[in-house]
Design a protein that fits this description.
With 271 residues, the protein is an alpha/beta fold. It is built from seven helices and nine strands. Helix 1 packs parallel to helix 7.
Length: 271
């Protein structure tokens, strides 16, 4: 069973714990598990399983120096709405583009192996270590960019987590596989989808020079390409009768600062 230590002696992270490094069998770089335990002894109301855990709580570990500021959002929900929230978050590593791609164009079991590890090893270890019962909780899975693809796939193979927070999905890594896989979501799934209209900055070149023209997407600008791909995902939700809410932000960019604001809306209206 995984061992967990207090994340820090600082009061701000008083209820946050971190696991020993763990390595997928097929990779060399380690991940760690972050666990946010509610202060209250009341029954847990919600569980959030998140990818890219290093970007949730601590600016020192964030890839780009900004965070979701998740602890503040949780504390507000626990105080104002009588919630009691457990977070289980997997950090990513320098092999993220391999580990976080459940729809690779070349056959690979790396991502599916990582997802199975979360379900079979990580979640049970958290529940046993901290003596927690999540049987009657509302379950959410959170991911941004490639993590959003992982969130969709995680819900497909573990449909108990049927509330998906899908922020700026990096659809091109999984195109068209992720579109085709939407039909495998559970009928009771609710999906919260977000993209910004200024996310094309993440590409190093004009998208028309990067991706196949056969993809029936808007190649006129990088920003339009991004939105058109996410719109195609929305069409698949409609075709497969998936309940969803889709937020498009005019000034939205591809980073944790914007995703944190969107997550705040989710906490206020849908948690």
């Amino acid at each position: 069973m995984l061992e967990y230590l207090k994340y820090s002696d600082k009061k701000i992270h008083d209820n946050l714990f971190i696991s020993e490094p763990i390595v997928d069998k097929s990779l060399s770089s380690p991940n760690q598990v972050l666990v946010r335990i509610p202060d209250s002894k009341k029954p847990i109301t919600d569980v959030i399983l998140s990818f890219d855990g290093q970007n949730l709580f601590d600016k020192k570990t964030s890839h780009f120096g900004s965070i979701f500021n998740l602890e503040k959002l949780i504390q507000t929900a626990e105080t104002d709405r009588d919630k009691n929230i457990l977070v289980i978050a997997l950090t990513s590593n320098n092999q993220r583009q391999t580990q976080y791609n459940p729809y690779p164009r070349k056959a690979s079991k790396i991502s599916s192996s990582h997802l199975k590890m979360i379900i079979l090893d990580v979640i049970p270890s958290v529940l046993e270590n901290f003596k927690l019962d999540i049987t009657k909780t509302k379950k959410h899975v959170l991911g941004a960019s490639m993590g959003a693809l992982m969130a969709i796939k995680f819900s497909i193979i573990n449909p108990e987590f049927n509330n998906i927070i899908c922020l700026s999905p990096a659809f091109w890594f999984g195109f068209p596989g992720v579109i085709l896989d939407i039909k495998n979501l559970d009928n009771n799934t609710f999906l919260y989808l977000y993209t910004g209209q200024k996310e094309g900055h993440i590409f190093n070149d004009e998208v028309k020079n990067i991706f196949p023209k056969e993809w029936e997407l808007d190649f006129s600008t990088n920003d339009n390409f991004y939105v058109s791909g996410v719109n195609l995902m929305e069409n698949s939700f409609i075709e497969n009768d998936i309940q969803y809410e889709y937020l498009i932000e005019e000034e939205g960019m591809h980073n944790e600062s914007y995703w944190g604001k969107v997550l705040e809306k989710y906490f206020q209206e849908l948690l």
